[in-house]
């Protein structure tokens, strides 16, 4: 997991389990400390809440997969217009995805950089 402050990779320093969640104390290479909490969907209040949480996670995974395909297509030389037609999105949205994934200051880029042409 990346540090929310600087984007460096972090490691787990401490894990505490409780009935409803797991708390992990983390520290990054730059010694920033932060907590993450994991809550199991079965611990949510109602069936409707669990179903909603499941839908949201599945939608996020699908968006990430689609965005990865978009960036790969752009890096392989496809134009923004071509990629927009293939994925049924606007050119502005394709540019936004490209910028998000190729911006070196964005901690969510995972090291993807545009090829210089």
Structure commentary:
α2 crosses α3. Strands 1-2-3 form a 3-stranded antiparallel β-sheet, with no helix packed on it. Helix content is 42%, strand content 20%. The mean pLDDT is 81. The chain starts with 9 loop residues before the first strand and ends in a 15-residue tail after the last helix. The chain has helices spanning 47-75, 80-87, 91-102, and strands at residues 10-17, 21-28, 33-39. The chain is α+β, with helices and mostly antiparallel strands. The protein has 2 domains: 1-39, no CATH class; 45-117, no CATH class. It is built from 3 helices and 3 strands.
Proportion of residues in helical segments: 40-55%
How many independent structural domains? 2
Query: How large a portion of the residues is in β-strands, by DSSP E?
Result: 15-25%
> Which segments are poorly predicted (pLDDT under 50) over 5 or more consecutive residues?
none
Strand order of the largest sheet: 1-2-3
Count every beta strand, where a strand is a DSSP E run of 2 or more residues: 3
Helix count?
Answer: 3
> Main β-sheet: number of strands, strand sense, barrel status?
3 strands, antiparallel
Taking all Cα atoms into account, the compactness measure Rg is 18 Å
Overall morphology = flat
By secondary-structure content and strand pairing, the structural class works out as alpha+beta
Terminal Cα separation, in Å? 32 Å
Overall mean confidence score, pLDDT: 81
Oligomeric form of this entry? single chain
Q: What is the helix/strand order?
A: EEEHHH
């Amino acid at each position: 997991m990346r540090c929310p402050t600087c984007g460096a990779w972090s490691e787990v320093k401490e894990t505490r389990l409780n009935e409803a969640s797991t708390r992990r104390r983390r520290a990054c290479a730059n010694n920033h400390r932060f907590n993450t909490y994991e809550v199991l969907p079965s611990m949510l209040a109602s069936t409707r809440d669990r179903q909603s949480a499941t839908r949201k996670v599945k939608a996020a995974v699908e968006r990430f997969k689609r965005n990865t395909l978009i960036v790969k297509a752009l890096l392989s030389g496809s134009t923004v217009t071509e990629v927009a037609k293939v994925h049924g999105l606007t050119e502005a949205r394709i540019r936004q995805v490209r910028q998000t994934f190729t911006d070196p200051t964005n901690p969510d880029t995972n090291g993807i950089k545009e090829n210089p042409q």
